[in-house]
Amino acid sequence: MKYTEEHEWLDVAGDVVTVGITAHAAEQLGDVVFVELPEEGTEVAKDDEVVVIESVKAASDILAPLDGEIVEVNAALTDEPSKVNEDPEGEAWFFKIKVSDFSPMDDYMDDAAYKDFIGD
Amino acid sequence: MAEEEDAGALKKTVLNELHLELGAKMVPFAGYEMPVQYPLGVLKEHLHCRASAGLFDVSHMGQVILRGPDVSAALETLVPVDVCGLPDGRQRYGFFTNEAGGIEDDLMIANRGDHLFVVVNAACKHADVARMRAALEPKGITVKLLENRALLALQGTAAEDVLAQHCPAVRDMRFMDVATLPIAGAECWVSRSGYTGEDGFEISVPNAAAMDLARALLGEEAVEPIGLGARDSLRLEGGLCLYGHDIDAQTTPIAAGLNWAIQKVRRTDGARAGGFPGSDTILAELAEPPAMKRVGLRPEGRAPMREGTEIFDLPEGGAAIGRITSGGFGPSVGGPVAMGYVPRNLSENGTALWGEVRGKRMPVTVAALPFVAAGFKR
């Protein structure tokens, strides 16, 4: 598992990466009440805003961590945004991206580095 | 967070230690370190308050005593409210106005027999006290901002049953009654009122007794502590204005739809018509309403429309016709809710409008306020 400074977790399986937000991020956001997902098949570039999350407090974005194509989205979150708080690092993944350029991966944190990053 | 101020400069209420002990997330608010939420979280705190009872620390608000000859008539020079006709033991909502007819702050005014007790917003309290001193001291009125009392609010359907455990006399109070009552061994100034749209009480308690009272109330099964986050969503569903957002120095009470708070006696042809700042503008607007009006707004779908969202009368093209002043997710409504200003001719309930969210126009419908039926014991 890799982590970004935007508090995303990246689970790599072959050339497909599953993306979600960390438990720390979910807690900081507070109760999530709205999730807007990208369309499957969308080509995205690293740092594109691909998901909108609204919590009781504020709106925030999830950025594409890598260049690639969105191959699957977790449509269940649209109807049940509260899953993001209940199981952020499991059931509540946001999208899967078929990656065309893995090179930014080297900059992302491993588990220990992320724990350090959030001061845990 | 951009809004955070220098934490060292923040004041603390006498319940600060209790908030920390309860695991609250503390944020700067109006110069105070205040709990924005407890471990339960905003959503569950909100729902719990409506279904049962919630305890709020609102000690940051300004509690002011006005005392002196003809104090009610004196205060009427600052507010378009019938203060002289407010009976002993009753409270009334009001607002300070400015010369342009705008609202400088909103407040609660209680007649406590030989004096008036007013509660003003935390962010405005020093300006309010200065305003009252300037206008009222020359009339022989003393204006005293109390630093020795805390303010708690107990709100929700179970509030009466909970408070009656500690003071049975509260059962006899009606909405907007005020009384001096002993609770948890202290002399409390209790009003049956609040800022959630639910039944409930606001309790002014001496600082020295506040911690014991808060712990006694939190010790009741029905009560959870509620932070500022849920306080905001509760009042929004209740259709209640937040000063600095839904009403401000540029907004008149008539545009804000607060006509009901200006009693007949202060209106044109009333026995004490006018005589408050901006009365020409405000009384004229009562006869001929201003162009814009505050309304409830229900966005379609799940995406909240927050403060600052521009409102349009067309799905594309054209200029903005209005703006949202408070908006978010309404946990009891189960969807997004908002308030804002739109032209009067587009203010009828059911009017279809659009709000621009992230560059897209999303449907929003003008809706009746409050979003959740009030639970007041009248």
Helix- and strand-based class of chain B?
alpha+beta
CATH topology of chain A: OB fold (Dihydrolipoamide Acetyltransferase, E2P)
The CATH class name of chain A reads Mainly Beta
| Percent helix of chain B | 10-25%
Distance between the termini of chain B: 42 Å
Question: Helicity level of chain A, as a percent range?
Answer: 10-25%
Which second-level CATH architecture of chain A applies? Beta Barrel
Strand order of the largest sheet of chain B: 11-12-13-10-4-14
Number of helices of chain B: 8
| Uncertain residue ranges of chain B | 1-5
Shape of chain A: globular
Mean pLDDT of chain B: 96
Mean pLDDT of chain A: 95
Largest beta-sheet characterization of chain B = 6 strands, mixed
Function (chain A): The glycine cleavage system catalyzes the degradation of glycine. The H protein shuttles the methylamine group of glycine from the P protein to the T protein.
Subunit structure (chain A): The glycine cleavage system is composed of four proteins: P, T, L and H.
Family (chain A): Belongs to the GcvH family.
Keywords (chain A): Lipoyl
What is the topological layout?
The complex is a heterodimer of chains A (120) and B (378).
Chain A (H helix, E strand, L loop, with lengths): L1 E2 L4 E6 L2 E6 L1 H7 L2 E5 L6 E2 L4 E7 L3 E5 L3 E7 L2 H4 L3 H4 L8 E7 L9 H7 L3
Antiparallel strand pairs in A: 1-2, 2-3, 3-9, 4-6, 5-8, 6-7, 8-9
Chain B lengths: L10 E2 L3 H6 L3 E5 L2 E6 L4 H10 L1 E5 L4 E6 L3 H5 L15 E7 L5 E9 L4 E5 L4 H12 L5 E4 L3 E7 L3 H8 L11 E6 L2 E6 L8 E7 H12 L4 E3 L2 H10 L41 H9 L4 E8 L10 E3 L9 E9 L4 E9 L8 E6 L2 E8 L11
Parallel strand pairs in B: 1-3, 4-14
Antiparallel strand pairs in B: 2-3, 4-10, 5-8, 5-9, 6-7, 7-8, 10-13, 11-12, 12-13, 15-18, 15-20, 16-17, 16-19, 17-18, 19-20
Helix pairs in contact in B: 2-7
